[in-house]
Design brief:
With 472 residues, this protein is α/β, with parallel strands linked by helices. It has 18 helices and 18 strands. The chain binds NADP nicotinamide-adenine-dinucleotide phosphate. The site of NADP nicotinamide-adenine-dinucleotide phosphate has 26 residues, from helix 7.
Length: 472
């Protein structure tokens, strides 16, 4: 058999998803020595970049600047983008396998974990996923409503960086967000906000907080916000102290110090407060006439699990906290792709070293690979995906070297998309839309102006395509 990867027979790979993990996998393929490769990248949205566009907070433009790296990867002549193409609707897995030597699933984790307590469906209870998508103009969430104009106190459940993003967006002066690419509908709502307090609810102690210390520092540096911690909850218990010393990350050690410093400063005198609570878990969200009014919290203590990790153990002690809104920020969760194996327990595509398996302990599925949150679960920063995607590509290249990749029967997927009248967005279309979004933003004193619906995005892509055609 003639092994693909040569000038006359390039290796053909597609990624499904166009977030960081997809781009890092593409980069690893393009950098493989002596390999001639073509990568087609699909996304169900008309725009690329996954969570960099739809997840990273608008006031973190320095993090969003990572797309400069992805633009360079996309400039490789072997790269094509197919936006507005959805698996299960426009294409099936079999279509991909017929056209590519390998398919890389880079579909992320699009849903969120539930709390699993009574009252989760009350009006006023939201997931952070919805809120983050809404303020980032993600088309899936444009119609969500958040009643910030009637809220004073908001509880955010969870102690990760998403919880911190939500807290910061809620507490920050909207004027500071007005120059970013925050969705216009979100800016209008935030301008009416009466939120003065965000209560962050951590089920473990300060030493186990999952957020990065700089996220806490960033909120503490906001001109109008005090970070407030109860002295009794800032204490690092002996179990956590030993755990921190032995295996705590530097970020966790720093968090524990910062939290103790804030506890020493009392309530402060600023108008807005971030209250960090620890060792409390919501056991019921309670309401009146279907609308949230308070959260019943159960207190906890920490005990070592079998690995020695401090875990919360519920105490027979409760309190209620009056709140107007709750945002659940307790982690993302993957959703199944039609026709692709799914590990329902972990919410990921089952895999070994990035090679897709039929089930968690099952056989390999030939020609299919997985990267990013769909591979390892929703953990890690954007950069974590670089090494992780490289590792999956390493598996793919080993399989290629072992002649383990089946030859596709068809050549160019564009023919199939054309036959099916699927109006895909190309990279050239995206570059024009990208320039348009930036120029529209500039005219409004903002870094970028994002349209919040697929229809509006496609209409603009078509208009820009038409303009480009008349200029030739
Ligand atoms: P995360 O870091 O896993 O944090 C989830 C938090 O929810 C943890 O504090 C966890 O507590 C808590 N939790 C889970 N189930 C709970 C329950 N039933 N009740 C109460 N609390 C519960 O997840 P994330 O915040 O969604 O972030 C996902 C990833 O994206 C992370 O790697 C994060 O660092 C990254 N991210 C980074 C940035 C940034 O760099 N600025 C911004 C956003 C996201 P336990 O620890 O006790 O399980």
């Amino acid at each position: 058999m003639h092994r693909p990867g040569t000038e006359s027979l390039p290796l053909r790979v597609c990624t499904v998803g166009s977030g960081p993990s997809a781009f890092y996998a593409t980069e690893a393929l393009f950098k493989a020595p002596g390999l001639r490769v073509q990568v087609d990248m699909f996304d169900r949205l008309p725009v690329p970049y996954g969570l960099v566009r739809g997840g990273v907070a608008p006031d973190h433009q320095n993090i969003k600047a990572v797309v400069k790296i992805y633009e360079k990867i996309a400039a490789n002549p072997g790269f094509r983008f197919f936006g507005n193409v959805k698996l299960g609707r426009d294409l099936q897995v079999a279509d991909l396998l017929a056209h590519y030597h390998a398919v890389i699933w880079a579909v992320g984790a699009e849903s969120d974990n539930k709390l699993g307590v009574p009252g989760e469906d009350l009006a006023g209870v939201h997931s952070a996923t919805e809120f983050v998508g809404w303020y980032n103009s993600h088309p899936d969430f444009r119609d969500r409503r958040f009643d910030l104009a009637r809220a004073r106190t908001v509880a955010v459940v969870g102690n990760g960086n998403v919880a911190m993003d939500v807290a910061r967006v809620l507490l920050q002066d909207p004027a500071a967000l007005a120059t970013t690419d925050l969705a216009e509908h979100a800016l209008a709502t935030l301008r009416t906000s009466t939120v003065r307090e965000v209560v962050l609810l951590g089920r473990r102690g300060p030493a186990q907080a999952a957020f990065s210390p700089k996220e806490l520092e960033e909120i503490a540096e906001l001109p109008d916000v005090d970070v407030v911690v109860r002295a009794d909850e800032a204490v690092v218990d002996p179990l956590s102290a030993a755990w921190l010393e032995k295996e705590g990350a530097r970020s966790q050690q720093r968090n524990a110090r910062l939290i103790a410093e804030h506890a020493a400063h009392g309530d402060g005198s600023k108008a807005r407060k971030l209250r960090c609570r620890f060792l409390v878990a919501p056991v019921e969200l309670q309401g009146d006439n279907g609308r949230l009014t308070q959260v019943r919290l159960q207190h906890a203590t920490l005990a070592a699990d079998a690995d020695g990790t401090p875990r919360p153990v519920a105490k027979d002690s409760f309190e209620t906290l009056a709140v107007d809104l709750v945002f659940k920020a307790v982690g993302y969760r993957g959703i199944p792709v039609p026709g692709v194996p799914f590990d329902n327990k972990k919410g990921i595509i089952p895999n070994r070293d990035g090679r897709v398996l039929e089930s968690p302990a099952g056989q390999r599925v030939a020609g299919q690979y997985v990267v990013g949150w769909a591979k390892r679960g929703p953990t890690g920063l954007i950069g974590t995906n670089s090494a992780d995607s490289k590792a999956t590509v390493e598996s793919l290249l080993q399989d290629l070297a072992a002649d383990g990749l089946a030859a596709p029967t068809r050549t160019d997927i564009s023919d199939l998309l054309r036959q099916r009248h699927i109006d895909h967005v190309s990279w050239q279309d995206w570059l024009r839309l990208d320039a348009w979004e930036q120029s529209q933003g500039k005219a409004r004193g903002r870094v970028r102006w994002k349209l919040p619906s697929v229809e509006e995005l496609l209409r603009t892509v078509h208009a820009l395509r038409g303009e480009a055609a008349t200029q030739i």
